[in-house]
């Protein structure tokens, strides 16, 4: 047998084992270093959650008038906040609330019965448990009823006597705990606003014993002119309301927090995206227990941008005073039960700037029960009325555009009678043969009736049936809409109403429509309508905001312009230039020639006004309507105008609904209108004098107010 060959496999295996041994030794050594030296650091890293970014609110933007007078500002106040961590337990919050209650006073008026029951269960767990029967606990253990059902049963079985055992101190703790619990993790929640200096200092000194509690500055809206225009400026939600439920998803999608304060009505709402500002952002890094490991400021934040309004506050205040005085005066003179409001809009007919939006209403003070005059500027866009003959300019131009009449058409002013109906006549007999200019001047109803009949293709004969072509109402309404009557004006405010349209299509109703006694219109629509005539036929979009400006620290100045809003022409009316000029001439005659319906009020005005009066027979539909079986018949008064007639710089609409009952009354529309235009031009002249003599102070326009005495008479 030959000699066997010696194998080399064992040697190679030994080398492999040695290499594996050395590698394992190095791995074990490395793991030991990681565990012993860096173990705690890596454990902390592993337990970290994602970074949490928290937004802190900033002051809202300011609002200025067109002359940069501050209308809406912010005022700071001391506040106490609470920020709960993600892992904060109910017991921990309750403990902090008990400590805080010993330092501050907290109102308990917002504590509800449900809050008391929840608190009672937390404070009395054994008694709460005893309210569930053994049978119910057995069902719970068998998972036939759940935790919610058990809790609901406990709530139901808490007696009134047990709730009454809660002391005032308990309720104060509960009020604080309620605020703690209403916030979201890592989001500061205001616990108390308007904190006194002593409380603020005491809390600041004890922050180490009050985890989550902090002292801060809160911001509230400040109105420099009191209640003036507040209904138009709008409101902001408070810290309890937070985001409105109906717009919750909208705001959350735009990085708002649920307890953020936002604009909830009118200008504050309309320009929320501008006014709310850029919130400060802080990044919190937390562990799995919710404890904050690190905080990093991402952005400091910036208060909201500022709005420069078109409103002239000097003029606004003066006009409001006029409206209030004339409203009370008319109510005293006429003795009417129903007159309670009046409105005025002043508008630049070329730009759409609203210089004044005044509205006053006599109401009851909720606290005293006495009558008082309240701000109702919003009524200029949210309430509508039959306005009467003020719309006759639109009726004439509708007749021209449809070919129903020409500038040479004349009608004899005699009553119009359709078979089966009462005669319809002008407010005064003996007006004679009229062309359209004089028909406007003397406010002939008959001229408008005959124009409407021609538009409808009717063959009018006295006391005979009258038929009109289908769609005649639509022809008129579409034409009126070109002037802004019966449609929304487009003003930059939410909830503007378009007015109400009559539902009947009888020929007689069309005649009523032609003199403004069928469909209803707002005061803002009247202002847009007369501006359209004043500027030569362009319907301008009314606007309350003129500019958006950067916020700056200097309280005495406004920041640079970010955006300036240019005039917007919504449409041009379907009318030839000479037609509009003819209506302008008719309006001039109304105020400047004898027999004009406003001549007695405006003849002496040196600023050359033009306009149209309106008196409408209507039915009362105001706040007292439930007191009547049948709505009383009332007279609405209106006035539209502009000045100077040959170069208009200001347009005006006045509305006095339910001015009086019966055939005799007053002329509050003309009285208000004359004083308002006088005031506008007086203020303009005084400002001109001020510019010429800078050291000379502008004299305020003063009128002796007799409102308090007149209100006392109303109450009596």
TrEMBL record:
UniProt superkingdom: Bacteria
GO cellular component entries: plasma membrane
Domain called Penicillin-binding protein transpeptidase: residue spans: 343-677
Catalytic activity: Preferential cleavage: (Ac)2-L-Lys-D-Ala-|-D-Ala. Also transpeptidation of peptidyl-alanyl moieties that are N-acyl substituents of D-alanine
Location(s), subcellular: Cell membrane; Membrane
Occurrences of domain Penicillin-binding protein dimerisation (ranges): 57-295
Biological pathway: Cell wall biogenesis; peptidoglycan biosynthesis
Gene Ontology biological-process entries: cell division; cell wall organization; peptidoglycan biosynthetic process; regulation of cell shape
UniProt EC number: 3.4.16.4
Sequence intervals crossing the membrane: none
Membrane topology classification: Single-pass membrane protein
InterPro entries linked: Beta-lactam/transpept, Beta-lactam/transpept-like, PBP_dimer, PBP_dimer_sf, PCN-bd_Tpept
GO MF entry, a single one: peptidoglycan L,D-transpeptidase activity
Primary location recorded for the protein, binned into one broad class: membrane
Alphabetic keyword roster: Cell cycle, Cell division, Cell membrane, Cell shape, Cell wall biogenesis/degradation, Membrane, Peptidoglycan synthesis, Transmembrane, Transmembrane helix
SUPFAM superfamilies according to UniProt: beta-lactamase/transpeptidase-like (SSF56601), Penicillin binding protein dimerisation domain (SSF56519)
Family of the protein in this entry: Belongs to the transpeptidase family.
Protein name, entry field: serine-type D-Ala-D-Ala carboxypeptidase
Originating species: Mesobacillus foraminis
Origin organism lineage: Bacteria, Bacillati, Bacillota, Bacilli, Bacillales
